[in-house]
Each structure stands twice: as C-alpha cells, then as structure tokens.
From TrEMBL:
Ribosome recycling factor domain: residues covered: 24-186
GO cellular component terms, A-Z: cytosol
Role: Responsible for the release of ribosomes from messenger RNA at the termination of protein biosynthesis. May increase the efficiency of translation by recycling ribosomes from one round of translation to another.
Pfam families: RRF
Protein name, as recorded: Ribosome-recycling factor
Species assigned in the record: Actibacterium atlanticum
InterPro entries in the cross-refs: Ribosome_recyc_fac (IPR002661), Ribosome_recyc_fac_dom (IPR023584), RRF_sf (IPR036191)
BP terms from Gene Ontology: cytoplasmic translational termination
Gene name tied to this protein: frr
Organism domain of life: Bacteria
Source species taxonomy: Bacteria, Pseudomonadati, Pseudomonadota, Alphaproteobacteria, Rhodobacterales
UniProt GO MF annotations: ribosomal large subunit binding
Subcellular localization: Cytoplasm
Keyword terms of this UniProt record: Cytoplasm, Protein biosynthesis
Amino acid sequence: MSEDEFEIDLDDLERRMDGALAALKQEFSSLRTGRASAAMVEPINVDAYGSMTPLNQVGTVNVPEPRMVTINVWDKSLVAKVEKAIMESGLGINPQTNGTIVMLPIPELNEERRRELTKVAAQYAENARVAVRNVRRDGMDQLKKAKNDGMSEDDHKIWHDEVQELTDAHIAKVDAALENKQQEIMQV
C-alpha cells in the first residue's frame, strides 16, 4: 500500500477547528461590554411581514457614538415590532423611539454584571474548546482506522503529532480570545 492512502485530511480538520473559533467570536460579539457595537443586535429577529427577519434586514444599524446604537427602520409600520423584539431579546436595554429611528443607549455595566458576563464568556470559550476537541477526536479516529488498515507506526506517530499540534494551536487561540474578551468586559 502506498503512503498516500493513509493521509489524514488536516485541511478539513483545521477548517472545522477554525469554524469553532469563528462561532466563538460571533458569540463574543453579542456580549455587551458597556461599549456600543452593531454586533450586539445581530442575533435579534423581528416579526416582519409574517416571518422572523434579522433586525439588520428591516433597518440600518449604526453606532453614532461609543454608548449608542441606532436602528433606522425602513418601514414605519415595523418600528413597534423592532422595539418589542429588542426588549424581548435579553439585552437589558430599553429602546427609545424618535420617528423611524430606534435608539439604544448603552448603560454602564456594574461590577456584578461584568463578573456575570465574564462567566458567560468563559462558558462560550469552553464550548469552543469542546468543539475543537471533538474535531481532534475525529482526526484520531481516522488515524486509528488507518493504523488498523496497515499504516506504519512511524507514520501514525507523525500524523498523531500533527493533529495534536493543530489542536493545541486552536485551543491557545480560544484561550487568547477569552482573555481579550474578559479584559474588555472588566475594563471600566
């Protein structure tokens, strides 16, 4: 048997681990840090025209100043529904309306809320680590199968080390992202 038959698709494993990192960054962007961010409202859906529609598809989301997010709703009949969706989203922000513009003033976070948010961020990071480890496990299962099919001990060791290096690098990226997010949350 040729060596090529036993190659493990490291690119696929890396792509899947990168996906876990991208999902983590998406979750982090939805966490409030006391600074305004358009990403805060990305997960919010509005009941528009009989279906749930992402908020950014019913209006323009802007961040005119560090502690304010505005949504310029395109259809005046949807303003009340946008307000309702924001209040029910769990952001903890009360919207203010001025015509078709919905304003979200971002209040200062108190110490207790900051600590809660760092715990939520840590949970998101742990979920990302688990996802990376699951991809690693898939890679190790491929290696085990290849070894049973006749892969040499040396090749098995080389591939094992490659998969482990990839895993360690992605876990380190998750930890760094968590550290940055926790510093951002705790910054007053």
